[in-house]
Every structure is written in C-alpha cells, then in structure tokens.
C-alpha cells in the first residue's frame, strides 16, 4: 500500500517539525479536547474478511490504514480518559481491499508532561468480521501552542473472542478547549481610592422566581420544570439510562430453518433497531456438539444468516446494518450431552444496548 506509506511518512515529518516549536504546557483537571488521528494497523495473521461471500485472509504487514477522530478529558493532571473512532482500509492477500472500523476507550496515565501509557478496550471489525480486544498504548504528546498539541502512539491489542494479537501506530493532532497560559504572570490588584461612607440600603429578601431552590442571582437556567432536580446553578441534573434488547432463537436438530414461534423475538429486536437507527447488529450462531466440527461451523453461520435474512426481508432492516458470525460448537450455552442441553446450544444470540441522558426527577 504505497499510498499508506506516503501518508504516514508525511505525518511523521509534520510531527518532527513541530518539535522545534513545541512548548511544555501543563494540562489541568477537566481539560477537554477533540482531535484527528491517522496511522497504520497490523492485523493478526489469522484474521479473515468476507469478500464476495468468501473468507479472505487480511494482509498483516502494517498495511491497514486507520483514520479517525478522538475526544478526551483530563480526570486529573495524571489521568486521562479518551474515546475514539477509526475507519479502516485493509489490503487482502492475493489482492483486493476490505473495509471496517475501530472504536473504543482508553484510560491513560501520564508519567510526566510528555510521556504516557494506558489500557483500554476496542472493538475491531474488518470485512464484516468483528472482535473485541484489550489494547495497551504508549505515547508522547507535546504542545505547539496553548491549545494545539501533537502526539504519536504505538501499542498492541489482544482479542477476547478469537485471541488475535495485533499492533498499531498512529499520529494525532488535539485541540484543547480553553486557553491556558504556560507561564502565567502574577497580577496585582489595582489601587482603589477610598470612597466616602454612604448609607446602606435596606437588605432585600432573595427571590427564587421558578421555585427550584436557587435564588435568581445565582440561577443560570430560568423556568426549570418543578419536578426536576437542579444543581447549584439552577440547571437540570441528568443521569445516564441504559436501554437493552436481547434476542435468543433456538433451532431444531441439524436445521437452519427459523421457527415460526421465533418471529416475535426477531420482530422485537427489529423494532428496537428502528427506534435507534444509529445501531448495527451482529448475530452470533451456535450448534450443539453432535457431528463434525467443520460441519457445525458451517451450520452455525447458516443459522445466523437465516435470522439476519428474516430481519432484512420480513421486518425491513437495512442489510448494511446486519452482520453475522458463526461459532460452531465452541461456545456452548449449557454444558452436558443431554437432549435439553443440546437444544439450548442450537441457537443464535444477539444483544444491543444504548445509553440515553435523561433528567433526574425530584
């Protein structure tokens, strides 16, 4: 991927040029930033992608271009919390390309003003094959001015499902909100001429026009609803509320035909996706342990695809929002070889959740 190598060389050149003008601006607690990131991703030799309905091996020689955005907040002068999203463009062995995404969060610890390291979780998907991983990062950050910083990072990640071992390196620019003076000068209070004594007016009773418990002189949010809790500034308090939808569909022995009794379960998940169009779904197929392992892997993929087809063709979900993955007999839901245990293991599973910000009631 010559284009990738050219872009990365240009990024490193920009970073090295910025060193000459960098200054040691110290970050502060509650500093917030947004940024852009670009780098390379080295896929595991065992990672495959779906291309024209066939599994293709992904090239693992740092040939996957990763570009994206990030945002973070300084929890203290040493600890930082960051979230990011990357678009992936990967080379496939024997030619062709596959596309995907990375998204995750990191907790970073700063050893000093420039060097940091951290751990995080990331979801990586290339060519329709997704995997979650634990990611370790080391990096360097320097400020170009009080608000703009550049950083360079490298690290690795280990998958939790497929046990992939993968590496990455990237360069980023970050914009910190709120100007901070790297070496503030102390200011002296100006001299004020003494004023002649004046008679003091009678004190007035503080007024709370909207009855939220915060007087008008300190209330930054007027006319707040009476049934909502407010903070010290008179503004509505919010909390995070998690909405979750799960889908479990069982199958007959040696079958990938979706039972009629399962249509209600699938429709509930489809309605949840229609209410939250920003969500995509991955359907996971499973089998019992009866039969050859290769056959069970194929059957698990057929079951996951069969449920996905019902969501698309019967309940109107966009096909681009539905993907599937087979696990064969490797992830039993119930241990044992009884008829009941085998029935529990002939299944597909899927889960979606979303976090909404809702006001706190009194």
Automatic annotation (TrEMBL):
It is found in: Cell outer membrane. Keywords: Cell outer membrane, Ion transport, Membrane, Porin, Signal, Transmembrane, Transmembrane beta strand, Transport. Its main location: membrane. SUPFAM superfamilies: OmpA-like (SSF103088), OMPA-like (SSF56925). Residues 1-22 form the signal peptide. Residues 194-206 have a biased composition (Low complexity). InterPro entries: Bact_OuterMem_StrucFunc, OMP/PagP_B-barrel, OMP_bac, OmpA-like, OMPA-like_CS, OmpA-like_sf. GO terms for cellular component: cell outer membrane; pore complex. Residues 238-356 form the OmpA-like domain. It is a multi-pass membrane protein. Pfam families: OmpA (PF00691). Residues 182-224, 323-342 are annotated as: Disordered. PROSITE patterns: OMPA_1, OMPA_2. GO terms for molecular function: porin activity. One of its GO terms (biological process) is monoatomic ion transport. This is OOP family OmpA-OmpF porin. The lineage of its organism: Bacteria, Pseudomonadati, Pseudomonadota, Gammaproteobacteria, Alteromonadales.
């Amino acid at each position: 991927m010559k284009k990738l190598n050219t872009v990365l060389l240009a990024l490193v050149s920009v970073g090295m040029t910025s060193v000459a003008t960098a200054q040691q601006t110290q970050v502060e607690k509650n500093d917030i930033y947004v940024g852009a990131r670009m780098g390379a991703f080295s896929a595991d030799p065992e990672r495959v992608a779906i291309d024209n309905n066939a599994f293709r091996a992904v090239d693992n020689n740092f040939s996957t271009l990763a570009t994206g955005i990030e945002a973070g907040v300084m929890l203290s002068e040493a600890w930082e919390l960051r979230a990011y999203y990357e678009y992936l463009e990967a080379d496939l062995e024997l030619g062709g390309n596959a596309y995907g995404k990375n998204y995750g969060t990191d907790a970073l610890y700063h050893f000093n003003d420039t060097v940091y390291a951290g751990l995080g979780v990331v979801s990586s998907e290339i060519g329709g094959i997704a995997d979650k991983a634990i990611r370790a990062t080391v990096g360097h950050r320097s400020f170009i001015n009080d608000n703009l910083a550049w950083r360079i990072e490298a690290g690795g990640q280990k998958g939790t499902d497929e046990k992939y071992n993968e590496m990455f390196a990237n360069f980023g620019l970050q914009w910190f909100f709120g100007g901070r003076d790297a070496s503030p000068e102390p200011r002296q209070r100006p001299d004020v001429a003494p004023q002649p004594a004046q008679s003091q007016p009678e004190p007035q009773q503080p007024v709370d026009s909207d009855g939220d418990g915060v007087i008008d002189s300190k209330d930054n949010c007027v006319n707040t609803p009476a049934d909502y809790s407010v903070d010290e500034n008179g503004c509505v308090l919010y909390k995070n509320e998690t909405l979750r939808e799960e889908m479990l569909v069982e199958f007959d022995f040696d079958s990938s035909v979706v039972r009629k009794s399962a249509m209600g379960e699938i429709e509930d998940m489809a309605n949840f996706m229609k209410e939250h169009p920003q969500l995509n779904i991955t359907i996971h197929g499973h089998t019992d342990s009866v039969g050859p392992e290769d056959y069970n892997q194929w059957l698990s993929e057929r079951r996951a695809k069969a449920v996905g087809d019902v969501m698309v063709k019967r309940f109107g979900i966009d096909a681009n929002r539905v993907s599937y993955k087979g696990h064969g007999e490797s992830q039993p839901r119930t241990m044992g070889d009884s008829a009941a245990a085998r029935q529990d293991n002939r299944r597909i599973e899927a889960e979606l959740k979303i976090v909404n910000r809702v006001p706190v009631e009194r």
